[in-house]
Amino acid sequence: MDRLAEVVPLNEITKAILIEDHPSYRRVIELTIDGDPAIELIGVFGTAEMAVQRLGRLDAVERPHVILLDLNLPGISGIEAIGKILAIAPHAKIIVLTQSSAKKDIQDAIQRGAAGYLLKSATAKEIVDGIKTVAAGGGALDGEVARYVMEMVKGPPTKTDPKLVLSPREREILVLLSKGMVKKEIASELGIGYGSVATYIRRLYEKLNVQNAPAAIDMAHRLGVFPDDRHG
């Protein structure tokens, strides 16, 4: 199955791992996840190197569905780790969980394949909801991060690739993805079938050459797909 389309079945427990070097915050996340029966924390690591080594020894069926990843880690950074993790576990969904709201960190994480970006100020519910959202194929963005992503979408466009032409429906779905909606919610919002939404999203990702919703939004902006509607 294509990594872009793979989601966790509704009746399956979402397996997650945490890569975080601060023991006190690790404990907070452990307690948060332990409180939700739909999520199982199967590993906790203090460095990305340790996590990558462990992932490399796991069979595909044993690997996590979702990975919570800090950026400021000893050894290789979280940004560097994203590509290494996805090379080993291509179906995993990575949520960056960090104190950094720096625009460069957000862009780098999304462009490298992160499916979500949450700040450590997020509530327990926001973290749990974020895990479930990316496991279902959506994108999880902190409110502040989402505003920045939307600014990118609305900002002055760069030169559009003449080969890149999105249909009105694809653009509509791209906007809904930017709001954090998953396929089922988009289908309900637009009054079309789930399968149709999945097809539109797959075509979107293929056209934009990306792997997830946040990356699609960023790439669409950089290619000038969105019109500059600030003055509209």
TrEMBL record:
The keyword Hydrolase does not apply. Keywords: DNA-binding, Phosphoprotein. The modification 4-aspartylphosphate is found at residue 70. Coiled coil: none annotated. InterPro entries: CheY-like_superfamily, NreC/VraR/RcsB-like_REC, Sig_transdc_resp-reg_C-effctor, Sig_transdc_resp-reg_receiver, Tscrpt_reg_LuxR_C, WalR-like. One of its GO terms (biological process) is phosphorelay signal transduction system. Pfam families: GerE, Response_reg. Residues 15-135 form the Response regulatory domain. GO terms for molecular function: DNA binding. The keyword Phosphoprotein applies. Gene3D superfamilies: 3.40.50.2300. SUPFAM superfamilies: C-terminal effector domain of the bipartite response regulators, CheY-like. Residues 159-224 form the HTH luxR-type domain. PROSITE patterns: HTH_LUXR_2, RESPONSE_REGULATORY. PANTHER family: TWO-COMPONENT RESPONSE REGULATOR. This is Transcriptional regulatory protein DevR (DosR).
